[in-house]
Specification:
Blueprint lengths: L1 H16 L6 E5 L3 H6 L5 H22 L3 E8 L7 H18 L3 H5 L2 E6 L7 H13 L6 E9 L1 H17 L10 H7 L11 E4 L20 E4 L9 H22 L1
Parallel strand pairs: 1-2, 1-5, 2-4, 3-4, 5-6
């Protein structure tokens, strides 16, 4: 009880110190398997605990006024895991996308759900669930939740380059007329979501793992690495990341003035 009170007070203090709230936060949800392993449990338990934490975190984000959350849920590199674990993850993703259809918070907060990533790599039943969630929330604009599945930043840029080359050959573009806006239009994430203000990675890993290079690295987003595994992520950890972002913006403004 006392610890809860102290954490709430500390969270309040951090929030007071944040003059700027990021519009778009991208989260690398790392540590689900290590969380489970440390408790002698299977990886599936860790992934489910992580999915539950995601739902709690969305409430925090909405409360803080964040408009866009992008979650790195499954990378193209994750296909190298054991097929059993991959299939269990796909089943979990399917369940969560279908849950969107009946989740009262989705409709109360007007959350628009969208997937970014290579859709051709996902099984048909999962894609049906993804498209059902996207269709059900297509008109919402109160909050934007982007789920990165079968996603790889270099692959995304490669696919965009191939599409641009096709259009140059078809006469739609002249090579000298290609701009950053042209590339953004052809990049899946760039065509759907704004630049990333803050990347948070859990699990004590200090790397961004090929996540949203065009929208994050290209716009010099703030990066915050923290130790807790994703299932143990707290509101305090989210606020600490936001504080780092806010301090960076304040420092920039101070340098300008």
């Amino acid at each position: 009880m006392i610890q809860d009170l102290l954490e709430r007070f500390y969270a309040w203090q951090i929030r007071r110190s944040c003059r700027y709230i990021p519009r778009h936060i991208a989260i690398i949800q790392d540590g689900n398997r290590r969380y489970a392993k440390g408790r002698g449990l299977g990886a599936t338990i860790g992934h489910r605990a992580g999915a539950d934490k995601t739902e709690v975190m969305l409430d925090w984000a909405h409360e803080l006024g964040i408009e866009h959350i992008t979650l790195y849920s499954f990378s193209t590199e994750n296909f190298s895991r054991e097929s059993r674990e991959v299939n269990e993850l796909f089943g979990l993703f399917k369940d969560r996308f279908l849950k969107v259809l009946e989740d009262p918070r989705v409709h109360r907060y007007h959350i628009r759900v969208r997937m970014i990533g290579d859709r051709t790599l996902l099984p048909p039943d999962l894609m049906e669930a993804v498209e059902a969630a996207e269709d059900a929330t297509d008109e919402y604009d109160g909050f934007f939740l982007n789920i990165a599945l079968a996603y790889g930043g270099r692959n995304e840029i490669l696919q965009a380059a191939r599409e641009i080359v096709k259009e140059v050959r078809a006469g739609k573009y002249l090579p000298d007329a290609i701009t950053t806006e042209t590339v953004s239009h052809h990049i899946d994430s760039g065509n759907a979501i704004p630049p990333v203000d803050l990347i948070i990675r859990t699990g004590n890993e200090c790397r961004t793992s090929n996540f949203l290079p065009w929208l994050a690295n290209g716009y010099e987003s703030t990066v915050y690495f923290c130790a807790p595994y994703w299932p143990l992520f707290r509101k305090i950890d989210l606020l600490r990341g936001i504080r780092v972002y806010s301090q960076r913006i304040e420092g920039r403004q101070g340098a300008v003035t």
